[in-house]
Amino acid sequence: MTILQNISLKPYNTFGLDATAQFFVEIQSVEELVEVLQSPDFQSIEKLFLGGGSNMLLTQDFDGLVIKINIKGIHKNFEDNTHIHIQAGAGEVWHELVMYCVEHQYAGMENLSLIPGTVGAAPMQNIGAYGVEIKDIFEELQALNLETLAIETFKLADCHFGYRESVFKHEFKGKYVITSVTFKLMKEPVFKVGYGDIQKTLEEMGVVELSIKAVSDAVISIRKSKLPDPAEIGNSGSFFKNPEIPKTQYDTLKAQFENIPSYPINESTVKVPAGWLIEQAGWKGFRDGQIGVHARQALVLVNYGGGTGEQIKALSQKVQASVFEKFGIKLSVEVNFI
């Protein structure tokens, strides 16, 4: 374990933004994490815990210690006739875990294929796609209490999962570091193919008999067709959340914008696709120098190379203001501003 100084974070964030960390360390175990946190050299400085760097926007240099969580390991810790529990280290790449489960015929994760980031970050914002969220397959997680330096276990009810929300984004923010997550998967799949273009893509792929791999392949195909590869164009995937609004507000908007799509949450609330709102406000494909809004998916803000976090932040605020002016809906961001 080596503490580095004045390290560029460009390779460690999917936007490809060139911010500098005063100190930087990669840790491979809980023991190393505790050792770093107990070091007298770093007791009083600010710390940033980094996973895959896919859910953050670096708007400035970081005057503190960046701790890259590389805790690895995937193993089975429970099995019965219907379910299997898979525990994964927080530093495991999310998509690689999904592929491991698809390969072993463990069902439940396949709709979450190709989401960028690491396992430890997944429950923080209850990642989700195509009708499945982390909370649907979550068993428990372990996290290091930064005050006591003791490992604590959080069950489903403890995490207060919501739409892109968890207790770790609010009252426990900055108080814990997730070290591992355990998922409850099924031996017999229950396929969810009614969301988005999954069914259409399966038909185009010529799939006659559904399988875990077929659904995963369809999701991967859809994501590749709509979302830019961060290795080619800097981005963090979906920059904005899909807003949930009162049905009464939606009905009013429907009278004015008859093509506005929605997904019912309950009798009184509907979810409206943020990408549709942004596109209707005229931002899809917008470019300003080295930053912009992606041409195929308006939810995605991009860094074409050489852009800054401050520029992307300013663009996001302009998009928010424009959507609010046109629809009266305030968009919330998914990424964390650093």
Secondary structure elements and their pairing?
Blueprint: E1 4-8, E2 20-27, H1 30-38, E3 47-50, E4 56-57, E5 62-69, E6 74-79, E7 83-89, H2 94-103, E8 128-129, E9 132-133, H3 134-137, E10 138-145, E11 151-155, H4 156-159, E12 176-186, H5 198-204, H6 212-226, E13 234-235, E14 244-246, H7 247-256, E15 263-264, E16 269-271, H8 274-280, E17 287-288, E18 291-293, E19 301-303, H9 309-327, E20 336-337
Helix pairs in contact: 5-6
Tell me what the structure shows.
- It is found in: Cytoplasm.
- Pathway: Cell wall biogenesis; peptidoglycan biosynthesis.
- Belongs to the MurB family.
- GO terms for molecular function: FAD binding; UDP-N-acetylmuramate dehydrogenase activity.
- The mean pLDDT is 93.
- The protein folds into three domains: 4-69, Uridine Diphospho-n-acetylenolpyruvylglucosamine Reductase, domain 2; 74-226, Uridine Diphospho-n-acetylenolpyruvylglucosamine Reductase, domain 3; 234-337, Uridine Diphospho-n-acetylenolpyruvylglucosamine Reductase, domain 1, CATH 3.90.78.
- It is α+β, with helices and mostly antiparallel strands and 338 residues long.
- The chain is 25% helix and 26% strand.
- It has a five-stranded antiparallel sheet.
CATH topology of the largest domain: Uridine Diphospho-n-acetylenolpyruvylglucosamine Reductase, domain 3
Rounded radius of gyration (Å): 20 Å
Regions with little confidence, pLDDT below 50 for 5+ residues: none
Category from helices, strands and their pairing = alpha+beta
Tell me the series of helices and strands, N- to C-terminal. EEHEEEEEHEEHEEHEHHEEHEEHEEEHE
Strand percentage lies at 25-35%
Distance between the ends: 25 Å
- Average pLDDT: 93
Protein name: UDP-N-acetylenolpyruvoylglucosamine reductase
Keywords: Cell cycle, Cell division, Cell shape, Cell wall biogenesis/degradation, Cytoplasm, FAD, Flavoprotein, NADP, Oxidoreductase, Peptidoglycan synthesis
Catalytic activity: UDP-N-acetyl-alpha-D-muramate + NADP(+) = UDP-N-acetyl-3-O-(1-carboxyvinyl)-alpha-D-glucosamine + NADPH + H(+)
Function: Cell wall formation.
